[in-house]
Design goal:
It is a single chain. This protein is α+β, with helices and mostly antiparallel strands. The protein contains 16 helices and six strands. A three-stranded mixed sheet has the order 1-5-4, covered by helices on one side. The longest helix is centred in the first third of the chain and has 16 residues, at 96-111. The N and C termini lie far apart (56 Å).
């Protein structure tokens, strides 16, 4: 086997591998499609990259298809109602992404005539687009020589160069390596190839090193165990927060919902009434904190893990004949048929809370 030194490392073996083994993804222009003159759609590239952050490809595919069906162009998304976008996003998590998605679409439509800027700097000027998304869209949609680094690329590059500094501190060193390796020709394919390599070959556990196009120059494989990379700083234990959620159902099958404040955790999403828990503070957990007086019954506890904390919600349920008047002025509350829950912008934690009180709620709900 010919050993390639890191000083002379070329992207060509990776691009040759990508030409043969790339994943077929609904937002991707494959090498074969590119050879037929098909160009990437910046809207699709941007939409997929935003959706894919902190989420798996399999989870994103149905959401991507649903968004394109409802809003085939960025101008369509810009014109959509906020509530519709949040409801379509519900379940993907990290809901600030959905709010920023809408703001970005509006900016592209109003300030750029519906055309995405074609440089990293121009893309970063848009709401909600940071370093990673700007680089990814610039490279993949516009073939700019941008250094794209997601979790898969971090893993590949840390093993290739045996970078012993722990994450997240090692990110600048890693990005510099990616920038040096990114070719002038086909930088978009290179970025996607690195992602595919990390997702299918250079996996966190049991990487298929014998199939890797970089196996002859991988320092982790030569010096150590690839699974030891990337090195990560010791994780801090997540704090546990407490709160309560209240599921009120009328005799004709309506449930009390409200909309959360636009800013903050789960901003703009729909919820059942809850106590004032946050990532830093506990909320009340007893029925004494219920939104109105009723015969509230305990329905157990649901646990939901956010990025920075674990939430334990005590679930309370009541069945009432006559519904109290919603406090629209304070909480933007309303009564919604249980059969229509799937159409609401309910985050996963709220779906868990409702299901704990009404086990068949989402089996009978209309899509």
């Amino acid at each position: 086997m010919t050993i390639t030194t890191l000083d002379s490392l070329s992207a060509k073996p990776l691009l040759d591998w990508y030409d043969r083994h790339h994943r077929d993804l609904p937002w991707r222009v494959s090498p074969g499609m590119a050879a037929r003159g098909i160009q990437p759609d910046p809207y699709r590239v941007w939409l997929s990259e935003v959706m894919l952050q902190q989420t798996t490809v399999q989870a994103v595919k149905p959401y991507f298809a649903k968004f394109l069906e409802r809003w085939p162009e960025v101008t369509d998304l810009a014109a959509a109602e906020n509530d519709e976008v949040m409801a379509a996003w519900a379940g993907l998590g990290y809901y600030a992404r959905a709010r920023n998605l809408k703001k970005c679409a509006e900016a592209v439509a109003k300030e750029h005539g519906g055309v995405f800027p074609d440089t990293e700097a121009g893309l970063k000027s848009l709401p909600g687009i940071g370093d990673y998304t700007a680089a990814a869209v610039a490279a993949i949609a516009f073939n700019r020589q941008a250094a794209v680094m997601d979790g898969n690329v971090e893993r590949v590059i840390s093993r290739l160069y045996a970078i012993e500094a722990p994450l997240p501190g090692a990110k600048p060193v890693m990005k510099d390596k990616v920038a040096r390796l990114t070719p002038k020709a086909r930088p978009g394919d290179f970025a996607q190839a690195m992602m595919d390599l990390g997702a299918t070959i250079c996996t966190p556990k049991r990487p298929a090193c014998s199939l890797c196009p970089f196996r002859g120059s991988c320092q982790a494989l030569r010096l150590s165990d690839p699974e030891l990379f990337p090195v990560k700083a010791a994780k801090k234990e997540k704090p546990v927060r407490q709160g309560a959620a209240f599921v009120a159902v009328t005799g004709d099958g309506e449930i009390l919902l409200r909309r959360r404040a636009e800013s903050g955790l789960l901003g703009g999403m729909t919820e059942v009434p809850t106590t004032a828990w946050t990532a830093r503070l506990d909320g009340e957990t007893s029925a004494a904190a219920a939104p109105f007086d009723a015969a509230w019954q305990a329905c157990g506890t649901v646990i939901h893990v956010f990025t920075h904390f674990e939430l334990r919600l005590s679930i309370w349920r009541t069945a009432i004949a006559a519904r109290p008047k919603p406090n629209d002025a304070l909480n933007d509350e309303w009564w919604e048929p249980v059969t229509n829950l799937e159409a609401q912008a309910l985050p996963t934690v709220m779906k868990k809370a409702i299901a704990a009180a009404i086990p068949l709620a989402f089996k009978t709900s209309k899509a």
